[in-house]
Amino acid sequence: MARRRHKKRTHLGAQTRPSNATPANSSAVRGPKTMVIRMGAGDVGSSVSQLVKDVRSMMEPATASRLKERKSNRLRDYTTMAGPLGISHLLLFSRSSTGNTNLRLALFPRGPTLHFRVERYSLCKDVRKALRHPKGGGKEYLSPPLLVMNNFLSAEGDIQSKPPIPKHLETLLTTIFQSLFPPIFPQSTPLSSIRRVLLLDRQISKSTGTTSSADSYPYIINLRHYAIVTKPTGLSRGVRRINAAERMLKERASRKGMPNLGNLEDVADYILDPSAAGGGFTSGSESEMDTDAEVEVMDVNHRKVLSKKQAEEAHKTEGGDQHRGTGTQKRAVRLVELGPRMTLRMTKVEEGVCGGKVMWHEYLSKTEEEMKEMERVWETRKREKAERKRVQKENVEKKRKSKPPADENADGLQADAVEDYSDDSDDNDDGDEGFTQRERIPVPGR
């Protein structure tokens, strides 16, 4: 008898999940998920729309990459769906009436919200045009990037800002940006899964003695996005081309870059002779590629799994040398920029999701009395909101208790229906008699 089919793609394995399993949208198992939104849809312009697409690709894979917005959509529409989808961060791009591009980074569902002004930005296509050898989209976006942060916590007297940023807000911003991506555990995370780097560098402006707020930059962040490229080091150009040709044969790619060894008698002529087929060592520095650093990694070549008996025989053959065959190789690391680039200037920090008490503002500063008055206003609003919720709950309970039980409702409706039907039947009888009499009138010509 054929085995019964279980739908897994559309039904998410509902039949095979154990009874004590944790739901998929539970905070205990889910990682950070982002939703990048352009508020106003087409009103922001084509450049900002493309910037939103580039940011979505940068936030891959845990992001809504194919989100479609409409002009009629409001923030409430997205926050309503963010809970069921397990969204933890909202990135909202918008354009003001003066033409400034703004970014709001909000933690869902309780906030806080960071407000930034996008001072400058470059799209991915502009970055690729500026590079000599750009990196195309491949497997880099299958895993989240490695987050590198610099100068987020400032020392005393390093930053000139009016008003100054409190230390607890600097720590809060650091925590928010760190929570954008899942944590990396060096003991268990494989190096092959780290293919991209997201660099956030806070721009430090030293004190110059000026007091003008226009000359002080309290919080400016430069964002860069790179791909990590590694290649074996210590090899000549010819050997590197042979390795590349072997990979192309395995992947069945084009043979355009394969070396031509048809005119050579031995492969050693190609490797050692500088003029042989354009390969070999031509200088001392040609054997090394342009790199940013060199690291030692475990060899990723596939090995045959030996049984216990075969492993013992191999160990006896090697003579018990523990240092033989360490399985490490040196690889050169280079960063290739993917884009986009952004320069973000923080303007405001507020509680809640895009609506709450202002914790810090770049252009406005309040005295102690104004802060106390603001606290009093917000406390009053909270009490009024709690009172409205209490009254609404009481009204719902009163309506539920005032309704008759379901059985009595059904009996009453049935009796009313029978009575109405009897009245209608009497009227119909009278009408039938008149209609029968009119039918008996003879029609001329028949």
- How many angstroms separate the termini? 74 Å
List the secondary-structure elements in sequence, H or E. EHHEEEHEHEEHHEHEEEHH
What percent of residues are in strands? Answer: 15-25%
Major beta-sheet overview:
11 strands, mixed
The pLDDT mean sits at 75
Please give the number of β-strands. Answer: 11
Question: What is the count of helical runs?
Answer: 9
Q: Which regions contain 5 or more consecutive residues with pLDDT less than 50? A: 14-28, 207-215, 279-288, 320-324, 424-440
Q: What's the gyration radius in Å? A: 35 Å
Q: What overall form do the CA principal axes indicate?
A: extended
Report helical residue fraction.
25-40%
Overall structural class, as computed from helix and strand content, comes to alpha+beta
List the keywords.
11 strands; eleven-stranded mixed sheet; alpha+beta; 9 helices; single chain; 446 residues
Describe the protein's architecture and organization.
It contains nine helices and eleven strands. The protein has 446 residues and is an alpha+beta fold. Strands 1, 2, 3, 4, 5, 6, 7, 8, 9, 10 and 11 form an eleven-stranded mixed β-sheet that branches. A hairpin with a 5-residue loop joins strand 3 (101-107) and strand 4 (113-122). The longest helix is centred in the last third of the chain and has 35 residues, at 368-402. The N and C termini lie far apart (74 Å). Residues 14-28, 207-215, 279-288, 320-324 and 424-440 have low confidence and may be disordered.
